[in-house]
Specification:
The chain is an all-alpha fold. The chain is about 75% helix and about 0% strand.
């Protein structure tokens, strides 16, 4: 099982770099929500590359990149859901949330070498709520981005629990087997999310081909 999970982890990394190129194919002909989600995929792909570069070339821990990851992800996906829901209070919610996180970093600068458990959990729960709101709004309709919203609900709910206890991975008393198990579970969940993102792109692309 271990070799297969290692292969899956590599697939997840390179799939993250491949998905933006798929979505770029319809970048100019689709709406603002599509373009914002494409920017999100590009951002994730670049961070995955940065993580590899930092660990393999610089020989450093890449945990500090997690702060850029969850904040950038929160901003881009919140803007994405604003385009889908068209509710002005989403901008207000995003602004207040970013202020709360900024205050947290000012008060606790020691967060940078570790996972920000509160920040990840806080932003994930907001994104899950927005995804659920969009699914409710589009219930009974054949709307785009429903699969992506389902993926966000499933993946972010699960990983918010994992990352909320993420600092235990760096506890020297925790065994290597437990650490690898946590990372492998996250890889499996994210791969399922990536599959939903790919299927969503395939649906959009197929509709455009039929209508062309």
């Amino acid at each position: 099982m271990e070799p297969y999970l290692r292969i899956l982890s590599n697939i997840v990394v390179y799939f993250s770099m491949f998905l933006p190129f798929l979505y770029l194919k319809g970048f100019t002909i689709n709406g603002r929500a599509y373009r914002l989600f494409t920017f999100y995929l590009m951002f994730i792909g670049l961070l995955q590359y940065a993580q590899i570069h930092v660990t393999t070339v610089w020989g450093m821990e890449n945990i500090f990149l997690s702060h850029f990851y969850f904040i950038g992800q929160f901003i881009l996906l919140t803007l994405f859901f604003y385009e889908l829901l068209q509710k002005k209070w989403i901008y207000f919610l995003m602004g207040v949330s970013l202020v709360v996180i900024a205050i947290q970093y000012v008060l606790h600068p020691d967060l940078f070498p570790v996972y920000n458990k509160f920040g990840i959990f806080f932003t994930h729960i907001i994104l899950v709520a927005l995804a659920l709101l969009y699914l409710y709004k589009s219930m009974g309709e054949r709307s785009i981005f429903q699969l992506i919203s389902v993926g966000i609900v499933l993946y972010f709910t699960s990983t918010s629990i994992i990352f909320y206890s993420g600092n235990m991975v760096f506890n020297p008393e925790i065994s290597q087997e437990v650490m690898e198990l946590i990372m492998n579970i996250n890889s499996v969940l994210y791969f399922a999310f990536q599959i939903l993102i790919f299927v969503e792109w395939w649906k959009i692309h197929s509709i455009q081909v039929r209508n062309s």
